[in-house]
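Q: I have 384 residues here and want to know how they pack in 3D. Can you give me a structure?
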Amino acid sequence: MAHSEHLFLIAGVMFFMFFLGNFLFQRLKLPSLLAYIFFGIALSGLLTGAELNIIDQISRFGIILLFFLLGLHFPLNRLLNISRRIWKVGVMDIGFNFGGSSLIAYLFGFDLMAALIIGGVAYATSSSITVKMLEETGRLKSPEGEFKLALLIFEDLAAPVMVSFLVGLSTRGLISPGAVGMIFLKVVLATAVSILIAHQGFRRLDIFVNRYMSRDFMPLFAMAVALIFAGITEAMDLSKLLGAFLAGVMLSETGTAKDMGKLIEPIKDLSLPFFFFWFGTSVTFGTGVISPAALAVLIFWAIVAKLTVGFWGGRMYGLSFKGAVRAAFSLTQRGEFSVVIAALADTVLRVFLGIYIVVTAILGVYLFRMAPAIADRIDRLRRR
């Protein structure tokens, strides 16, 4: 498997490996993205630089399509409605998880850029893991299920902007008020232009898109829009993921988001595992783990911060005491967004972040499943 001329054989083996990993991890009730990361860690030494480069290129398509599909779920009216309802809890979430984790990392001696990347990794609960577990446990339509979805949506909206800021700062190589201000202006400009195009352009394409949705050229149209806008934001020294997300928002204005998503979802499902696999190949344990003490404290804070936001945010949202406790213990798992931000780190820091993501994902799955029992026990103690 060391020669790039065996590309089709390698690709076939990888797809079969992804299939087995996904199947086994679903049986074990663990996130499939962990299987892909573990495979990448285990097999990185068997792949040549040329093969890893091909995997890297494929992985970029997968992650762009993930954010494009995310944007498809958020037409402009829905964006405004969700923001109005959950913004206070969302700001608390950013403060505790992004701000708190960044501060802890900085106090442990990480430089400012590394501390901000660590804060970004710590910020978002995994949407894919959480929604899947909500569906499996029948808690999706419960009152706390609605609260968790609203908070996840806020994080989904904040994540592309956060990635753009971190990409912009890492590209510039320095953090200054001027650099932050310039990135902010670029993000505002890209967002404002996208909203204008969505409102004045894509909203008028609804007849065309609806008429030809079943034709084989529509996936080409959707992919073109996603990649063009991803390329534009990348050329602006922002994240290509912000451009892909905004492209999805624009296309959602045609009113065909659900059908458009069905066209792109299979392509995303084939390419996204390569991103997590590629991340695994970049985690080289030969470099060692920097500051195990900082890692332990940050994992502890990852649980405490999400419990705090989940409980008090749930109470602010109107949940009962038990509902707020259940919500709090269902939000600690990190996943796909954490991996996206961790990919911005250098090789040494990726080992640290890789362990952080794996541990918080596994602990989060366990706490999610235990949340109803924990809530009942705490409620009984409270009533005594």
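Q: Anything worth noting?
A: The mean pLDDT is 86. DSSP finds 16 helices and no strands in the chain.
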